[in-house]
TrEMBL record:
Top-level lineage group: Bacteria
Domain HTH lacI-type stretches: 2-56
One Pfam family named in its UniProt record: LacI
Protein name: Ribose operon repressor
Sorted UniProt keywords: DNA-binding, Repressor, Transcription, Transcription regulation
Gene3D superfamilies: 3.40.50.2300, lambda repressor-like DNA-binding domains
SMART domains with a match to the protein in the record: HTH_LACI (SM00354)
Organism: Providencia burhodogranariea DSM 19968
PROSITE patterns, sorted: HTH_LACI_1, HTH_LACI_2
CDD domains named in the record: HTH_LacI, PBP1_PurR
GO MF annotation list: DNA-binding transcription factor activity; transcription cis-regulatory region binding
Length: 333
């Protein structure tokens, strides 16, 4: 396998000149550049990313820990992260935790062994990674996205879920509904908890009672919304409107309503949360709370690169503002 020295020898230049031509980090005359490129082509030389990373103490890679889920929200977040990494000249290594602490530790160690320049973390395990594991590696710049199981001293970028929950609920109240149920996400996750608290606060502000059977804590998945909606439809006095803690559960609720021979919004109105791509293609299109997923991914990558360049900077909490996307799943009473 050809080396940079072989290229330099054939082109009759120094190895530093070959490096400048490859990395385009210093001016090299056109004639010399042409000689170097011809030598590279003749020798079939491929630059070593490992050698470059050892010399520069940078790998130009970013690691991301992510919870595996059927929820399209995660895929849309990753899309934004991957696009931003590409635009900034970084490669992304994605590791799924599968919601398992042991796998999270294994994935985290894999990323640290690969000497990633920074970490994006968006996973839901309750317990943080092994302290013994972290002690074996130098501190890596970290940005938490949406939620995370542990403190890092890095930056946190999250949605104002409490405000989003209030906006969704007030929208149903302003539409004339008083019998409103909430299919909330798992309460050990801070966004799910904040959205539910926003729902309760809006109901309290409007002096509306929430029967205990109208509150269901589910799992942020399609099946959870389906099962929860079936439970609500079986009540002696079922609700007239639903706030689903995310769009995935709202989609599951649609399916349960359809199978019961009922219709959205004629029989039951629904509002979701996240504004996943699928929500605008539902029948009818789902009214929801928009979470800026592409912006979240871009902001997380930019913030992480800033922290990599400024490791002593204080950690920031950046809060994104949700907004209502009005479609056709809520009728006016």
């Amino acid at each position: 396998m050809a080396t940079m020295k072989d290229v330099a020898r054939l082109a009759c230049v120094s190895t530093s000149t070959v490096s400048h031509v490859i990395n385009k980090n210093r001016y090299v005359s056109e004639s010399v550049t042409l000689r170097v490129k011809n030598a590279i082509k003749q020798l079939n030389y491929a630059p070593s990313a490992l050698a470059r990373s050892l010399k520069m103490n940078r790998t130009n890679t970013i690691g991301m820990l992510l919870t595996t889920s059927n929820n399209p929200f995660y895929a849309e977040i990753v899309r934004g992260v991957e696009r931003s990494c590409y635009e900034r000249g970084y490669s992304l290594i994605l590791c799924n935790t599968e919601g398992d602490l042991e796998r999270m530790n294994h994935s985290l160690e894999t990323l640290l062994q690969k000497r990633v320049d920074g970490l994006l973390i968006m996973c839901t395990e309750i317990q943080g990674p092994s302290k013994d594991l972290l002690s074996r590696y130098p501190a890596v710049p970290t940005v938490m996205m949406d939620w995370s199981p542990f403190e890092s001293g890095g930056d946190i970028i999250q949605d104002n879920s409490f405000l989003g929950g209030k906006i969704a609920t007030h929208y149903l109240i302003d539409a004339g509904f008083t019998q409103i149920a909430c299919i909330a996400g798992p309460q050990d996750k801070s966004p799910a908890r904040a959205r539910f608290q926003g729902f309760m606060e809006a109901m309290k502000q409007s002096s509306l009672n929430v029967p205990e059977e109208y509150i269901i804590f589910s799992d942020f998945e399609f099946a959870g919304g389906f099962d929860s909606m079936n439970y609500l439809l079986a009540l002696a006095n079922p609700p007239k409107a639903i706030f689903a803690g995310n769009d995935a559960m709202a989609v599951g609720a649609y399916q349960a309503i359809f199978r019961q021979g009922k219709m959205v919004p004629e029989d039951i109105s629904i509002i979701g949360y996240d504004d996943i791509d699928l929500s605008s293609y539902m029948i009818p299109p789902l009214t929801t709370i928009h979470q800026p997923k592409d912006e979240l991914g871009k902001l997380a990558v930019n913030q992480l690169i800033h922290r990599m360049d400024n490791p002593l900077a204080e950690g920031n909490v950046i809060v994104l503002t949700p907004k209502l996307v009005e479609r056709q799943s809520v009728k006016r009473c």
